[in-house]
């Protein structure tokens, strides 16, 4: 049985809970047109304050997830996983609750609507009331909620988040947030009753309160230890992220709201607080742990550029799809593209741990369309080369190139960098061997004929050569007889007859297995017979135009279930699923292979890489989709 007030009354409403804000909007509109407009002022202020509060938490979350800025300042090194993100999905419940509490306060004290805009004395009064009432009240309540019954039925929800995050500050039960609303409300009402209230005071106090709550839960140390050396008393009146993180990792200490003075008075100060803060502050200027494996990605387009944890954490934790609420942010995405084009370098985006190994995703600051601009090729290669050389200096074992970063026309599938820097210790991997293996193992064993576009590409060549040895007839779409014959001659003599050059899509009108390595239009798809399945290794994927056919996703594999700290989806992939070229780099790293995997695919290694992937627990993801 649930404890009283442990769940939210609008829990089952999901996103429809935001309709409750419509009550405030309706009041504003009604008062504007039917009553004296001043009566709706309080309601308008509540709405504005709610929006600003949400913005503060979002900005702190974005800052916290900008690993290219905070990676060396992180206190708990593990990443935030999908489980924690889902638990904290409704972190903003407290903002709606306290908006309703503010409404109740207005109807109890209707003269609140007559507050002046500014009163300097009010800021001093509310600060005093905060120190005298809110700090000790919160300390007492917080310590009480660590008692056996209250912790089990209420406060354990807040502590169930393993990695403190700004949104963790709002992740608590209904009862706790009611009490926190009272902690915030006491100084505000006290100042009003003493005659010192003002609109600016309320805004300032509430927003600073939220700012400091986010500070304590951000999981990266931003306050320099030199501040406490110069002004020792400050450490008793302002907590730090390290200070509050200790409360989450070693419960029973550091209960204060914002002022450690009350932990000193209550004898609950963790003795490691100052030393850990000093250590975290000093080490923030040093490089952290060197990753074992790096996946070097790139931006796809303007909308997918927003699919990163430091924009909206919840959005990036689900497979990418275009959302209407992201459209207003497209100008920001365009501006970011221009800034990155003019001045930027490869940066850290996400990370996770697999069996004790640190895996990171770095991003080349270029968008997909830029890879097809002839004048941009040299600059893109310099960015990729810069990332490879940085990985080499750091001691990274394997770096895997994503999609367009290994484009044959751009750098020969990575060959350019390996030839230019023959003494690289980091292994450069294009991951196409596993990509080919995934595609080939999706093709049913009974298939005797396939139609292949992009037939003379690296992947097309490998797929054709592999299938012909299985006595599968491969219709290779290419207008270049020279390229076709070159590939055909690579096949053993007895299997060359299974490779057939075709120059038109009509040649595949009876073939139900299409392997698409070059983008095809809806018109070209019409030549496929009903019931055909489109396997694909083309970026971007083809549009699913035919309702009577099935379409596969890009080649991908699911990471082993013991992966830790993974909380972001890789483009359109499901949670825990990565592109095969990413998985290929993971396998290369786990196997400890010392060769580069660049240039042409070694067809004889396809089965070896596939078996290694299965051995390490990577799970094939079926591409068949209606």
Automatic annotation (TrEMBL):
Membrane topology: Multi-pass membrane protein
Keywords tagged on the record: Membrane, Transmembrane, Transmembrane helix
Protein localization: Membrane
Gene Ontology cellular component terms for the protein in this record: membrane
Pfam families the UniProt entry points to: CER1-like_C (PF12076), FA_hydroxylase (PF04116)
Residue ranges of domain Very-long-chain aldehyde decarbonylase CER1-like C-terminal in the record: 450-620
Ranges where the Fatty acid hydroxylase domain occurs: 128-268
Transmembrane segments: 12-30, 42-60, 94-113, 120-141, 178-208, 324-343
Keyword Disulfide bond listed: no
GO biological process terms on file: lipid biosynthetic process
Major place of residence: membrane
GO molecular function: iron ion binding; oxidoreductase activity
Family per record: Belongs to the sterol desaturase family.
Matches recorded under PANTHER family: STEROL DESATURASE
The name this protein goes by in its record: Protein ECERIFERUM 3
Organism: Anisodus tanguticus
């Amino acid at each position: 049985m649930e404890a009283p007030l442990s769940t939210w009354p609008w829990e089952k409403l999901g996103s429809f809970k935001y309709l409750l804000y419509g009550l405030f909007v309706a009041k504003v509109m009604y008062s504007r047109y039917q009553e004296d407009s001043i009566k709706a002022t309080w309601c308008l202020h509540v709405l504005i304050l709610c929006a600003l509060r949400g913005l503060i938490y979002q900005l702190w979350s974005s800052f916290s997830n900008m690993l290219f800025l905070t990676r060396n300042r992180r206190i708990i090194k593990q990443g935030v996983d999908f489980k924690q993100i889902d638990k904290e999905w409704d972190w903003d419940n407290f903002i709606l609750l306290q908006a309703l509490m503010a409404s109740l306060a207005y109807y109890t004290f209707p003269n609140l609507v007559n507050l002046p805009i500014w009163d300097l004395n009010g800021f001093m009064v509310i600060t005093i009331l905060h120190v005298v009432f809110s700090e000790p009240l919160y300390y007492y309540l917080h310590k009480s909620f660590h008692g056996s019954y209250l912790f089990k039925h209420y406060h354990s929800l807040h502590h169930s988040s393993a990695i403190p995050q700004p949104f963790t500050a709002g992740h608590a039960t209904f009862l706790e947030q009611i009490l926190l609303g009272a902690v915030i409300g006491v100084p505000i009402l006290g100042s009003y009753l003493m005659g010192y209230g003002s609109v600016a005071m309320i805004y300032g106090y509430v927003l600073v309160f939220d700012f400091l709550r986010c500070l304590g839960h951000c999981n990266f140390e931003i306050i320099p230890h030199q501040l406490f050396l110069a002004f020792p008393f400050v450490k008793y009146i302002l907590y730090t992220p390290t200070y509050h993180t200790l409360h989450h990792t070693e419960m029973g200490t550091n209960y204060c709201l914002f002022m450690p003075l009350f932990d000193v008075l209550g004898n609950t100060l963790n003795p490691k607080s100052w030393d850990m803060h000093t250590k975290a502050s000093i080490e923030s200027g040093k490089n952290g742990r060197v990753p074992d494996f790096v996946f070097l990605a790139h931006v796809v387009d303007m909308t997918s550029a927003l699919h990163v944890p430091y924009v909206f954490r919840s959005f990036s934790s689900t497979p990418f799809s275009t959302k209407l609420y992201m459209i207003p942010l497209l100008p920001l995405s365009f501006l970011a593209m221009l800034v990155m084009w003019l001045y930027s370098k490869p940066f850290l985006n996400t990370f996770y741990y697999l069996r004790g190994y640190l895996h990171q995703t770095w991003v080349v600051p270029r968008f997909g369309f830029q890879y097809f601009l002839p004048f941009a090729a040299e600059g893109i290669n310099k960015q990729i080369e810069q990332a490879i050389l940085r990985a080499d200096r750091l001691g990274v074992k394997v770096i895997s190139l994503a999609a367009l970063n290994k484009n044959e026309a751009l750098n020969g599938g990575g060959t350019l960098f390996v030839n230019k820097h023959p003494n690289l210790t980091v292994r450069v991997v294009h991951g196409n061997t596993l990509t080919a293996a995934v595609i080939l193992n999706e093709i049913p064993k009974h298939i005797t004929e396939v139609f292949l576009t992009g037939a003379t590409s690296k992947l097309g060549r490998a797929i054709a050569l592999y299938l012909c040895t299985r006595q599968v007839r491969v219709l290779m779409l290419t207008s270049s007889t020279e390229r076709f014959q070159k590939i055909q001659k690579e096949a053993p003599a007895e299997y060359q007859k299974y490779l057939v050059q075709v120059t038109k899509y009509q040649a595949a009108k009876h073939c139900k297995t299409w392997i698409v390595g070059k983008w095809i239009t809806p018109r070209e798809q019409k030549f496929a017979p009903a019931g055909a399945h489109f396997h694909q290794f083309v970026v971007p994927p083809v549009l699913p135009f035919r309702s009577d056919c099935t379409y596969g996703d890009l080649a991908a594999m699911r990471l082993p279930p013991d992966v830790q700290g993974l909380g972001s989806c890789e483009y359109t992939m499901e949670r825990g699923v990565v592109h095969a070229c990413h998985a290929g780099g993971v396998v290369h790293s786990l196997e400890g292979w010392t060769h580069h995997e660049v240039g042409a695919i070694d067809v004889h290694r396809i089965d070896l890489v596939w078996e290694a992937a299965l051995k390490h627990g990577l799970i094939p993801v079926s591409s068949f989709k209606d």
